[in-house]
């Protein structure tokens, strides 16, 4: 019996260690404004240091909620920079018709959180790029932009151009090493912009955004709001091939750009954008050689593909995540997991009647809760979830699997989580997950704002 007790204790300790590791970087923010109830976030590193960053903020001028997941490659410098500055550029490009408050450009972004810690030292962060931000803002004033889509595209391209320009030699021919290393590294990004009922997703590379939509009969399905920019995307392959002479058969080799880069759109990565002589001058001293067969650059762009979706009463939540998550399961599985979590999480919340309710109303509400729970059992979720955070719930099922019992799941989790950061990179990627939960009551009201 003693040995059995020890085994149980050992199992509990191992499970607690796995839970603690999964939840180490989880966060939840109650937004409670307009269409948005709250945002759940979770992240797990595989690289040492991590190359994924995420940010959550609000544009003071338009009251839009902004969120970004940035997945870096070739180091973390570019992704960290994007996650710290992309939102400020988006806030500099607000259309006049969406302006609810006149705010100077450098004060338009209200940080909620950023894993790059940009929200902690906004002042020092901005001083370095404030001039560039103002330049972009005055350029933007002269652009003929009429849609949020074109403002997002302008902001992405301007930031990417500024990253490249900051790496150029100064008048004395000196190169700023830190800026050059930002430009030499690269980053994909998925960016969501939610203003009243208008949801825009701007995507560069292979992060992805997925909407969870519930039918009248309670079945949840996924709606993809981004497409990955890689060789699996035929439109993307055609776009790149048409931009270069047909004699350049090497443009896509082995499923990669010039045989090297997997995402076919990205921030930074000036090795695929700059001409050879410029690369030799700036990147040569950094030990960053040009890719082979660089004949007609640029081969790469940070132009985002933008999808617009008008939120309806059936839209429940939005998942934005780096490709580290999507390696484990598809969009339908992800939305089913988040939906099951929302139903199961009801049982984690204590029931509290308000003081002015009649006994009859209390009875009806408790009955509704138990019916929801029953439906939940039918949906195959036999138990309440282990995590209060829906992003952590996704991470748990990504690494632990969606089949088999609890002990099997913990066994798989243990295998994945005991790999030290760095070594884990051979088995999985960094994973960053943001889940935006919509307010059903707000979305059930008649639509008061039809403009994009």
Task: Briefly say what this structure is.
With 452 residues, this protein is an alpha+beta fold. It contains 13 helices and 15 strands. Helix content is 37%, strand content 21%.
What does this structure look like?
This protein is of the alpha+beta class. 37% of the residues lie in helices and 21% in strands. It has 13 helices and 15 strands. The strands form three sheets. Strands 3, 4, 5, 6, 7, 12 and 13 form a seven-stranded antiparallel sheet that branches. The radius of gyration is 24 Å and the shape is globular. The termini are far apart. The model is unreliable at 376-382 (pLDDT under 50). This is PPM-type phosphatase domain-containing protein. Pfam families: PP2C. InterPro entries: PP2C, PP2C_BS, PPM-type-like_dom_sf, PPM-type_phosphatase-like_dom.
Give the SSE map.
Elements: H1 2-23, E1 27-33, E2 36-44, E3 52-59, E4 64-73, H2 77-92, E5 109-114, H3 122-142, H4 148-166, H5 177-184, E6 186-195, E7 198-204, E8 208-214, E9 220-224, H6 234-242, E10 252-253, E11 256-257, E12 267-268, H7 276-282, E13 305-310, E14 315-321, H8 323-326, H9 331-345, H10 359-378, H11 390-400, H12 406-417, E15 431-438, H13 440-444
Antiparallel strand pairs: 1-2, 2-15, 3-4, 3-5, 4-6, 6-7, 6-12, 7-13, 8-9, 8-14, 10-11, 14-15
Main beta-sheet strand count, sense and barrel state: 7 strands, antiparallel
Q: Encode the helix/strand succession as letters.
A: HEEEEHEHHHEEEEHEEEHEEHHHHHEH
How much of the sequence is in beta strands? 15-25%
Cα radius of gyration in angstroms: 24 Å
| Overall helicity | 25-40%
Number of strands: 15
> Number of helical segments?
13
Task: Quickly give the structural class.
Answer: alpha+beta
Q: Name the average pLDDT.
A: 90
Shape estimate: globular
Cα separation of the termini:
67 Å
Oligomer: single chain
Uncertain residue ranges: 376-382
């Amino acid at each position: 019996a003693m040995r059995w007790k020890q085994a149980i204790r050992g199992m509990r300790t191992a499970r607690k260690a796995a839970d603690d590791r999964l939840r180490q970087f989880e966060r939840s923010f109650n937004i409670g404004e307009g269409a948005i109830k709250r945002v759940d976030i979770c992240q797990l590193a595989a690289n040492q240091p991590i190359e994924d960053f995420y940010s959550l903020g609000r544009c003071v001028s338009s009251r839009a909620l902004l969120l970004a997941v940035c997945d870096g490659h070739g180091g973390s410098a570019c992704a960290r920079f994007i996650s710290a500055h992309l939102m400020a550029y988006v806030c500099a490009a607000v259309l006049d018709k969406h302006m609810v408050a006149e705010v100077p450009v450098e004060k338009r972004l209200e940080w909620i959180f950023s894993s790059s810690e940009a929200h902690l030292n906004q002042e020092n962060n901005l001083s370095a790029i404030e001039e560039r931000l103002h330049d972009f803002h005055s350029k933007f004033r002269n652009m003929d932009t009429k849609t949020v889509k074109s403002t997002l595209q302008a902001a992405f391209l301007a930031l990417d151009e500024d990253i490249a320009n900051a790496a150029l030699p100064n008048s004395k021919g000196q190169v700023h090493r830190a800026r050059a290393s930002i430009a030499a590294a690269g980053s994909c990004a998925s960016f969501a912009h939610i203003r009243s009922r208008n949801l825009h997703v701007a995507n560069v590379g292979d992060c992805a955004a997925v909407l969870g939509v519930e039918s009248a009969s309670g079945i949840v399905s996924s709606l993809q709001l981004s497409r990955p920019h890689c060789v699996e995307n035929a439109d993307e392959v055609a776009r790149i091939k048409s931009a270069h002479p047909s004699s350049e058969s090497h443009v896509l080799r082995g499923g990669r750009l010039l045989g090297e880069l997997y995402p076919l759109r990205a921030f930074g990565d000036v090795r695929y954008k700059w001409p050879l002589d410029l690369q030799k001058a700036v990147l040569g001293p950094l030990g960053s050689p040009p890719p082979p067969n660089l004949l007609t650059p640029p081969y790469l762009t940070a132009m985002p593909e933008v999808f617009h979706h008008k939120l309806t009463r059936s839209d429940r939540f939005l998942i934005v995540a780096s490709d580290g998550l999507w390696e484990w399961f598809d969009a339908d599985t992800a939305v089913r997991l988040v939906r099951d979590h929302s139903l199961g999480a009801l049982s984690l919340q204590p029931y509290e009647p308000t003081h002015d309710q009649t006994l009859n109303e209390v009875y009806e509400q408790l009955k509704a809760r138990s019916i929801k729970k029953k439906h939940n059992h039918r949906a195959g979720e036999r138990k309440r979830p282990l995590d209060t955070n829906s992003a952590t719930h996704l991470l748990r099922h990504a690494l632990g699997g969606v089949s088999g019992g609890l002990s099997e799941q913990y066994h798989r989790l243990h295998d994945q989580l005991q790999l030290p950061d760095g070594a884990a990179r051979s088995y999985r990627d960094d994973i960053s997950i943001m889940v935006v939960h919509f307010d059903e009551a707000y979305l059930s009201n008649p639509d008061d704002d039809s403009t994009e």
